[in-house]
Write a structure and sequence with these properties.
With about 750 residues, the chain is α/β, with parallel strands linked by helices. The chain folds into three domains: about 110-180 and about 380-480 and about 510-550, 3-Layer(aba) Sandwich (Rossmann fold); about 200-370 and about 575-590, 3-Layer(aba) Sandwich (Dimethylsulfoxide Reductase, domain 2); about 610-740, Barwin-like endoglucanases (Beta Barrel), CATH 2.40.40.20. The strands form six sheets. Strands 19, 20, 21, 22, 23, 24 and 25 form a seven-stranded mixed beta sheet that branches. It has a six-stranded mixed beta sheet with strand order 5-4-14-13-12-6, covered by helices on one side. It has a four-stranded parallel beta sheet with strand order 9-8-7-11, covered by helices on one side.
Length: about 750
């Protein structure tokens, strides 16, 4: 039978301006601008400390307090009451103030009176904007059915409108980047193995050994997570890092495996086979909790150390060293599930191998292992389920593939339908907080999808590449100006007193200009589409209060508690007697997928090219922070990492300006600089993701660095989940107009 999972379960774990004016010039200079970008803040005397902030400069969502003077936010800090991030916030969190007061932020509803992709913006009233959104979406629904509308949501504010379009309007065509281009494979693979989505649930502070595969700790700065990781290292944990690049994590490692990209599953299979053959696995745990061990043992028996060494281009002795180190420290081993795991199109099998290795070591429910914290649950208030049926229009069911997909619809099924009109046309699009131009491979397919639409509506804080394709562009209040999200969790160090926290996002300052929140926008569109009687709440504040009431709290009470409610938690250690690990998964076999983790080779690098991989930067979060003046000043471009020996052969030096061209002839629209280093494989180049925006409304970030996604045009799809492979393109460097071959 097919693998079925709900989104809830999956997530456990006024006037018209001149039509041709640039967006930033629609009004006079923003009166809310705090200070010159590089002027020191001076004294904070006379400021008021406002509690209740929850950051969204990345999706770790640290708890904040703000220093406010004359209704202006002048400083952000970590909430000292927090048992999550404490007083600490990262560079991006500190720079949230520059997002709040960015002169390029969207201020008023705008209508595109030009063409999609080359917009000419006209300022309009909210009434006109909402009337047009409601009438145009209703027209699409009446002509093509609810399935004629697609939605691309992302972030906390997108959940309420997403529920409206799914439950009330009745479209299945919703695709979240966090699922289909990021962590969805991870969660589906762990659920197919453990029955639960993992989150980042590893007890690193108490680990004796930590295994990271492609995890960029120290670069993707999730504060409490990095603290937990560093605590483990301080306590003496041995660190193994598997990465083709000498990352910040690799710099702290005891063993750095400089693996060939795309071969990680072979590496993990060889470790597991070695542990089984040498009787170095946890027999007691396997006997008590693992299903299909004999079939699993047979299925991985071919994976010798020498076999994997040849595939992975690493010494067999090093693979054995890793296996022995893990076995010697079991069960107190943290094998991190990863987060952004959509890499090569063979990723479900790799993440299944993560989970199976964790089980073989008995590293589940024990100190230092995979520990699923027993957190507090706050039930959300959302739209009632109105639309019935519609399964006959579910693209995933119609295609009869991707049976282990995360909730929603795989992106490529939606784009296929948009471009071909088959099995039915999709003619309306709502983009909320997502930038599909820079989150989804093959940008031309996104352009083709959008240009054939009858109507495109975008809601965002900033003008991004995707907003250039909107017919109506609506300005959203940012995370510092609104209620909208209740963060819950437990403290990371499970060895201390077990505690839980509840921290709703509350505004630190009022929203300026005509920016609105998701409840206002969605409710007004619902009224215009004929669903006003289905509205569940009339304001975000009402929504948060109703949700808090379920745990006997309120906004007023949380304000008295400095924005965070802390209560006793539950011991997270141990596993129930009926806990099962599917080493051999019959459901996978029934759907013609490998029942045992299996290595699936990826395309080899063509002669003269190198493989492009990308990752995170500690001072940027995707494209959403590219226009931030403080962060841009810290890292204005994303250097391309090039092996020093290769650079010498090519005649390239540190700081040389280059552009890139991929094996399909697509050239980068902008340039970056070369970083020459021995810390990258000779067959690989690397750059940070989220640069190279082409929207001229971003006066700081436009054309800064190279957009890696512009160069990712090869379409590889993970067969079990339908998620995109994101690291399968090959590139050459271009200097002074000359394309340079990469030496073999």
């Amino acid at each position: 039978m097919s693998f079925k999972v709900t989104r809830r379960k999956f997530l456990q774990t006024a006037s018209i301006a001149a039509a041709t004016l640039p967006l930033a010039k629609v009004v006079s200079a923003e009166t809310g601008f705090v200070r010159d970008p590089f002027t020191p803040p001076g004294s904070f005397e006379g400021t008021q400390t406002v509690t209740g902030g929850v950051c969204e400069m990345c999706f770790w969502r640290c708890q904040l307090v703000g220093k406010v003077r004359d209704k202006k936010l002048v400083k952000l800090e970590g909430n000292p009451k927090s048992i999550d991030n404490g007083k600490s916030i990262c560079a991006r969190g500190n720079a949230g103030i520059k997002l709040l007061y960015d002169p390029d932020r969207l201020k008023f509803p705008l209508k595109n009176v030009g063409e999609r992709g080359k917009p000419v913006w006209k300022q309009i009233s909210w009434q006109e904007a909402l009337d047009e959104c409601g009438s145009k979406l209703k027209a699409v629904q009446e002509k093509y059915g609810s399935q004629g509308i697609a939605m691309f949501p992302h972030g906390a504010s997108a959940k309420y409108p997403m529920d409206f379009f799914e439950k009330v309007v009745g479209t299945h065509n919703v695709s979240e980047a966090s699922f289909f281009q990021c962590r969805g494979i991870r969660d589906s693979a762990y659920m197919a193995t453990f029955g639960v989505a993992p989150g980042e649930s590893v007890d690193m502070p108490n680990a004796k050994a930590i295994l990271l595969i492609g995890c960029h700790f120290g670069e993707n700065v999730h504060v409490s997570h990095v603290k937990a990781y560093l605590k483990g290292l301080e306590n003496g944990a041995k660190l193994i890092v598997v990465d083709p690049r000498y990352s910040a994590s690799a710099a702290k490692s005891d063993i750095w495996v400089q693996i060939k990209p795309g071969t990680d599953t072979a590496f993990l299979l060889a470790i597991m086979n070695y542990l089984v053959q040498k009787d170095k696995y946890d027999k007691k745990f396997v006997a008590a909790h693992c299903v299909g061990f004999e079939e699993f043992k047979k299925g991985i028996s071919h994976a010798s150390l020498d076999w994997a060494a040849k595939i992975c281009d690493v010494p067999a002795k090093q693979i054995q060293e890793v296996a022995d180190l893990l076995a010697a420290n079991a069960p107190n081993v943290s094998i991190h599930p990863g987060r952004h795991v959509s890499w090569h199109g063979n990723d479900f099998q790799r993440i299944r191998a993560h989970a199976c290795l964790t089980a073989l070591l008995g590293a589940i429910g024990v100190k230092g292992g995979f520990v699923k914290a027993k957190g507090v649950k706050v039930k959300g208030i959302s739209w009632p389920k109105v639309a019935e049926g519609g399964e006959e229009h579910n693209l995933k069911l119609m295609a009869d593939k991707y049976h282990f997909a995360p909730p929603g619809t795989p992106t490529e099924l939606i784009r296929d339908a948009c471009i071909t009109g088959k099995p039915y046309p999709i003619k309306g699009c709502v983009v909320w907080g997502q930038n599909p131009m820079q989150t989804i491979p093959n940008q031309q397919r996104m352009v083709d999808s959008l240009k054939q639409m009858d109507f495109v509506m975008c809601v965002d804080v900033m003008p991004t590449d995707i907003t250039m394709y909107a017919d109506i562009l609506l300005p959203e209040a940012c995370y510092l100006e609104r209620y909208d999200y209740i963060k819950t969790g437990t403290q990371w160090n499970f060895a201390d007193k077990h505690q839980q926290y509840i921290a709703p996002r509350m505004p630190l300052v009022d929203a300026m200009f005509e920016r609105k929140d998701e409840v206002f926008i969605t409710n007004e569109i619902a009224k215009r589409m004929g669903y006003g009687d289905k509205i569940p709440v009339n304001s975000l504040e009402e929504k948060i209060n109703k949700e808090l009431a379920g745990v006997n709290l309120s906004i007023a009470q949380l304000k008295k508690e400095d924005g965070i409610h802390i209560q006793d938690g539950k011991d997270p250690y141990g596993v129930s007697e009926d806990f099962e690990v599917q080493l051999y998964n019959e459901d996978l076999e029934d759907n013609d997928y490998p029942a045992v983790p299996t290595y699936i080779p990826v395309e080899e690098v063509p002669k003269g090219f190198t493989r492009l991989v990308y990752g995170r930067s500690p001072v940027h979060t995707f494209n959403r922070s590219q226009n931030n003046v403080w962060l841009h000043n810290a890292m204005p471009v994303n250097p391309v990492w090039l092996n020093d020996e290769i650079a010498k052969k090519m005649g390239l030096q540190e700081g040389d300006e280059v552009s890139l061209v991929n094996s399909e002839g697509v050239k980068s629209s902008s340039k970056t600089v070369v970083k020459v280093t021995p810390g990258i494989r000779k067959d690989t180049v690397y750059m940070a993701h989220g640069y190279g925006s082409r929207n001229p409304m971003l006066t700081v970030g436009v054309n800064a660095g190279v957009d890696d996604q512009e160069l990712i045009t090869k379409m590889t799809i993970d067969p079990e989940t339908g998620c995109n492979g994101m690291r399968n393109n090959f590139v050459k460097l271009v200097k002074d107009g000359k394309t340079l071959d990469i030496p073999a």
